[in-house]
## 1
Amino acid sequence: MTATRKLASVQRDWRERDVRVVLAALVIAVATVATIALFASHLQRTMMTSASTFLAADRQLTAGTGQPIPDTWLAEARERGLATGRMVEFSTMVFGDQGFQLVAVKAVSSDYPLRGDIEWQASPDALREIRQQGPGQGELWVNPRLLRLLEIEPGDTVEVGNLSLQVTGLLLREPDGGFNLAALSPRVMMHADDVAATGVIQDGSRVSFTALFAGEEQTLDAYQNWLEPQLAASHRWRSIRDAEALAGSLEKAEGFLLLGGSLAVLLAAVAVAVASRQYALGQRDVVALLKTLGLTGRGIGRLYFVRLLVWGLAGALGGLLLALPAYWGLAAVLAQMLDQPLGFRLDWTALGPALMTALVALFAFAWPPVYRLRKVPAMRVLRSQPGEGGQYAWLDLLLAVAAIFGLVWWYTGEPGLVVALLGGVAALMLVMGVVGWLLVLTLRKLGGGGGSSWRLALVALYRHRRSSLAQIAVFAMTLMLAATLILVRSSLLEDWQAQLPDDAPNHFLINIAPDDVDEVASFLTARGLSQEAIYPMVRGRLTHINGVPVRQAVTKDEDVNALNRELNLTWMASLPADNRLTAGEWFAPGQREGVSVESELASQLAIGLGDELGFTIGAEVISEPVTSIRTVQWDSMKPNFYMAFPPDSALARMPSTWITSFYLEADQKAAINDFTRRFPTVSVLEVDHIIERIQQIVAQVTQAIEAILALILAAALVVMAAVVSATLQDRQREGALLRTLGGRQRLLVRSTMLEFALLGFLAGLLAVIGAEMALWALQQRMFDGDFRWHWQVVLPFPFISALLLALFGRWQLRPVLTVSPMVLLRRLE
Amino acid sequence: MTDNPTRSQDTILKVSDLSHWVDLANDTLTILQGVSLEIKRGESAAIVGRSGSGKTTLLGLLAGLDVPSQGKVHLDGAEISALSEDQRAQLRAQRVGFVFQSFQLLPAMTALENVMLPLELAGHENPEASARELLERVGLGDRTGHTPRQLSGGEQQRVAIARAFASHPVILFADEPTGNLDNHTGQAISDLMMALNREQGTTLVMVTHDQQLADRCDRQFAIDGGALQEVARS
C-alpha cells in the first residue's frame, strides 16, 4: 500500500483513538437506528396481523346498498396475488319446530376468515375448538342463545327462508364480530353459496355484501388505488386503522418508536460531533506537516473527504452487522409471546434512515471541523499559531442542527416532534448558558485553602471550565433525551393502563326493555357485578343539517361512516365521566332543546354550535340545535354515543331500548346463562376476548418499547463514554502528575469522583428540566395527553446521574492508580 | 561544498528587506525587521540566536510556510511571497526538504511509509525503492516496518532526514535538528545530515543554537531582536 493511500485507509485510522470513537459512534448510530427501524417494521407487521383478525382480513370492502360487489373486482384482486373472501350479512327469521326467531345471518365463503380464527363448539358441553373455516354448505352454526330461543339442539334442522340447514355447531366467537352493536339479534353463520337458495334476499332487502382481502401491504395499496375510482358512495373500504379500539394504541406505539428512533439519531449526532471535533483538533499537526511536505489545500480537502466517506461506509457496514443480530434477538423475544409469530424479514426500506443517519451525522457534524483543517497554516509545523479554529463554529452548529432536525422530520414525518425536541434542546442550551455563567462565578470564589478533595474537585471544574461546560452540555443533552424517552414511556403505559384497566367492562347488555331496566340492575347488583351507567337508545338517522339534506350538505369525498347507517341516539342528564366538553354548555336541568355532538363527527360534518340537526326516527322527524360538542373515549368499552339529547327532549318520548356494560370475571361466565334465562329478550354481547386481545397487543408493544428504551440508554452511555474519553489523556496526565507530586491515591480518587459527581448532578438537573419541557410539547402535539410533572423521575434523576458519572470518573482513573506515574507520563508523551 | 564543480554558484535563496509582524489585540508585535540575505546554491548556512529572537519565524518565511508582512523572498527563481498557498505547497513538494526539532513523523505510519510520503506527493515514479535506499543509507534498513513509537529519538530523526532527502530537494530547511537529542546522538545526526547534503549537493539552511553545528556550516547568521547579521568567519 502506498503511503498516500494509507493516509486515507481505515486500517491506519483505526490506530487513532479519536477515529475509533467517531467510528464507534457511527456504528452505534447506524446499529440503533437500523435495529429500531427493522424492529418497528417487524412490530408493525405483527400488530397488523394481530389487528387484522378484527377484520378477518387485512382490508374489507363493504357495499351497503344491497348490490353485491362485482366479481370482476375480486378477480382483479386475485390476479394481483391477494387472497379474497366474501361475506353476506342480513337479518331474517329462522324457523325451528317449536318457534321462530329473528337472527343476524352472516354467510361466508369457504375462504373466511382470511385472518384470525373462529371459536366453535360442537355442543354446549363439548370442548371449545378453534376453526380456520366457517360452516360448509348445508350447515348452520348458531349462537348458543338460539338453542334456547328456538328450543333446538345441535343436529336439528332449521329453516332459513326456503332452505333447510342442519345445526352442526355453536358459534362462540367470530374474528370480526363484537363491536357492531347493530347486531342485536342472535348470530347464525352459514355458507355464502347457500344464500341464493334461501330466497331471502330480494331487491330492496337490507343486506350488506362484504369482500375480504389479505396480502402484502404494497399490493393492497396498489389494489386500493385501482379500486378507489370505481367505488360508489355506499362502498366502504376499511383497513385495520379503522378498527377503532386499536387505532389509538397502535398510533401511540408507532409514535413512541419513531421518537425512540429520532432520539437515537440525535444521540448519534452528538457522539459523532464530539468525537470528530476531537479528531479534527488532533489532526492539525498532521495537516500542517502534510502541507509542509507539499500537499495543497485541495489535496487535504480531498484526503479528508475520502476518509470520511470510507468511515461512513465502514460505520454503516459495522452498524448493519450489529443491527441484524439485534433485530433477530428482539424479534425472537417477541415471538415467544405470540401465538402466531411472524418470520424475520429484512425490510430494506427500514435501513434507509439508518444509512441516512450515518451520512448526515458524518457530513453535518464531522465534516465542518474536518473541512476547516485545510485552513490550518503550514507554519504550525514549526509552532502553534494564534487564533486557530472556532471562528465558524456557530455557522457549523446552525447547519448541523438544521440537518439533524431535517433528518428527524424526514424520518418521522412529524413536525410536532421536531419542534418539541428542538424546543427542548434550545431551552436546555439557554439554561446551560446561565448555569455555566453561575458556575464560573461561584467556582472562582472557592479558590485558596487546603488540599481537601472537595476543593480539588471544584478547582478542577474551574480550571477545565470550558471543557467542563461542554461536557455538562453533552451529558445534559444525552440524559435529556434518555429522560424524555423514560417519561414518555411511563406516561404511555399509564395511558394504556388507564384506558383498559383490568376491570374494563367486557360484556354489553343491549335491547333492555324500559320495564326491565330496574330488574337488570338488581340482577347485576345481586351478583356483585358493577354496572356502568345505563343509557336509553333510540335508532335514528341524521338526515338534515340546517334544513339541508345531509347528502347535499356533505360531499361524497367526505365519506362519513356515521351517515351510512342508523345512529344510536340517547338522552342523558349528566356528561359521562370520560367525555369532555370542547365547546358549548352541557344541558341544564329541565332543558328540553339541544343536542350534544361527538367532536370528530362534528368536525367531519363541519357542524358547529347552533347548527340545527334534523333526525329521522322511524316515521318521525325531530330537529334540535347543537348546544355542545364533546370528545368520546371510543376504546373505553362503555356505551358511547355520537348524539346525546337532554332527558326532557322530544327523543325521550320515542320508543327506546336500554344499553349498559359491565365487567365479568372469566370464572363467572355461568352468570350469563342465568341472565339470558331470566331476560330472554336482552342481547348479551361478549367482548372479553377482544379486550384480552387488545391487552395482549399492548403487552407486546410494551415489551418492545422496553427493549428499545434499553437500546437507547445503551447508546446514551456510549456517547457519555465518548465524551469522557475525549479528555482521558489530559486527565490521566494530570492524575499522574498529581501522584508524582505526592498526592495520595485516596485524595485523587475522591476529588475525581466528586468532580464527576458535580458534573453529573448539574447535567442531570438540566436534563430533567429539558426533558419535562420536551415532554410537555410532545404531549401537546403527538400523544395528546395531559401533562403532569413527574416528580418520581425528576427528583432522583440528578442524583442517579451524579452517581453514574462519579463511577465513570473512577473507572477512567484506573490506569492512573494501577500504573506507576513515570510509566504513565512516558506513555502519554 | 563550495568546490562542487557540477553546480553553478547562482543564488538559490534571496531575501530583500523582509519584515514580519503580527497584529495583537491592541498592539503590533514586530518579529523580524529589514532582513536581507542571499544564499548560493550548494551553500550551507546556519541561523543562530536566542529563544524568541525570531529565527524560527524567519525559517518558516524562507521556506514559504508563511508569507512575510513586507519584503520579498525568492526561492530557486520563484518569488514565493507572490505565490498562492497551493502554489507554494507545490514548490515545497518539488524543491524543498524539511527536518524538524520534534521529528514530525506521522505516528500511524511505518518508517518506510513516512519516507515514501513526500515522494508520492511529488509524483515520483518508484517511491518505495527510493525510500528503502535512503533508509538503508541512514542506517535503518532493518527498521523500515517500525512505527515512530518503536524508534528512539535519534532513529526517528534519521527517518526524518531520510524523508527530507528522499525527493532530492534543491534546498533543505532544518529547525533545531539536534535540539531534542543528547550530545552524542546529536553529533551523529549532524554528521549524517552534512554527509547527505554533500552527496546530493543540496543547499542547507538551518536554525540552531548548537554552536558546534553552526560552525560546520559555510556561513553563519546571527539574529537578535528581529535583525539579521552575517557573522564574519575567521
Note: Chain B touches chain A at residues 22, 56-57, 59-60, 63, 65-66, 85-86, 88-94, 96, 98, 100, 104, 106, 108-109, 113-114, 116-118, 120-122, 127-128, 175 (CB under 8 Å).
## 2
Amino acid sequence: MEECNDNISFFKEGLRLDSRRPDELRPIKIEAGVLARADGSCYIEMGGNKVIAAVYGPREVHPRHLQEVTRAIVRYRYNMASFSVEERKRPGPDRRSHEISKVSREALEPVILTSYFPRSVIDVFVEVLQADAGTRTAGINAASVALADAGIPMKSMISACAAGKVGDTLVLDPMKEEDNFGQADMPVAMTPNGDITLLQMDGRFTKDEFSQALEMAMKGCREIYELQRKCLIGKYAQLETEPFLEVQVCD
Amino acid sequence: MDRKVVIPGDLLSEDIKKSGEGTYVKNEKVYSLLYGLANYRDKINVIPLAGKYVPAPGDNVIGVVKDITFSNWIVDINSPYDGLLHISEFPKRIESDEMSNYLRIGSSIMTRVKDVDSTMKVELTLSDRKLGLIKTGRIIEISHTRVPRLIGKGGSMISMLKKELNCNIFVGQNGRSWINGSSEDMDLALKTVLLIEKEAHTNGLTDRIVEYLKKEKGAKS
C-alpha cells in the first residue's frame, strides 16, 4: 500500500470526499433472484461496486475426482469483468482473483451445512461488473444472499465490510480514492452474532487502531445484515401482493 | 396457522423440544437453517422456498431413464443424485440383454425410492401395481418444495383435483407429476398445478383453487 500522500486531503469539514461521515457506509442496494437459470442469485450495489452472484447446486461434481464421499464441496469463483475498472483488466483468472476466491470460499463454508449433500458440489459464481474498492466484501454479501435464495441450509447469513485508515483517521467502507491512497484496508466477514470468518489486513494499524477498526467494520457488517434480511423477506412480500412476474427464457 | 418468513440464523424458539425440520439447535436455542416459511405448531418446521430434491426412502417419484448398464437402469429423478433401478426390481423376470426392450433411454417411469445409503446411492423399485412405465398422459414439473401444497393436508387438495378435473394424477415427491385424462381436462389440470405452484405460500389455497376451477369450467360451458 502506498504511503500517505500529504498533498491529498481526504476530509472536508469533517466529512469524506463523497460527503460521508467516517463511520458511514456507502448506499447499498440488494436484489435477490435476478437470474432465471441459476438456483439462487443476487445483485448488489455497494457505492460504485456492482456485483452479481449466482449459485448452482447442490449438483453432481465434475470432474469426478473432486467429489467427497461425506460432504458437498463448495466452489467459489470471483471474477472481474474486463470493463469493471478504468484501465481494461486482462480477462481471466489471475493471482489476485485466485486469492479472493479462496478467502471468500472460506468465509462462507463454515455456515453451509455441507454434510447434508454428500458427493455433490455447490458452485458460487461472483462477477464484478463495476469495481470501486471493496469488491470482495460486496461479493461475499451477494453470495450469502444467493445461497439463501437457492435454499441451501446455512447456520446463518454472512455479512462483510471493510474498514480502513486514511490521513490518520479510521474510516468505514473505503471507496476507491481512499483505498488507493490510504494507509490501511481491512476487510472483515462475519455472522450476525459476531463470529468472524474472514479477516484480512493490508497496510499498518497500531494495536488500538486495529481494535477500533475491527469494531467499526463489525458495526458495518451488522448494518449490511439488516439490508440482506430486508431484501430476502421483501422478495416474499412482493410475491404475496403483486401478481407473479413470469420469467421469459429464450430457448 | 401461524406462519412467518425467516432467513438462515433466525432465532425461532428457546425451547429445544420445538426443533423440527429445517432448524438446528445451538446453546439450547432453536434457529432456522433455511430461507423459507416457519410453521409454528407443536414443532417449528421451516419449509424452504427453493432447493433441490433429496431422495428419501418411500418417496414416490417420476424419473427418466438416462442410461442402461449391465444390470441397472440409471434414472434421472430431478435431484443431484441419480436413481438406480436394478433389473431384479422390475416386476417381471428379464435378462440383462433385453433390458432395453422394456425401459429404454428416455422412458419416463413412475417409481419409488426403496433405499438411500449414507453415500446417497439411491435404489429404486417398481414392485407395486401403481408404479411402472408411463405410456400416456402428460408430465409437469414444479419445484419439489411446492409438492406438499399440491397434495394438501391429508391429501385434501389432490383428491379434490382428481374429482373436479376428471383426471388421474400421480404426484412425485421430486416435483414431477403425471396427469392422465381427456385433452381439455389435462389442459386445465396443467394450468391449475402451475397456479398452485405460484401461490403455494399463501393461506386458504384449496378453497381458492375450488373457486378457480368453478370459474374456469363455467367459462367453458
Note: The longest helix of chain A spans residues 207-241.
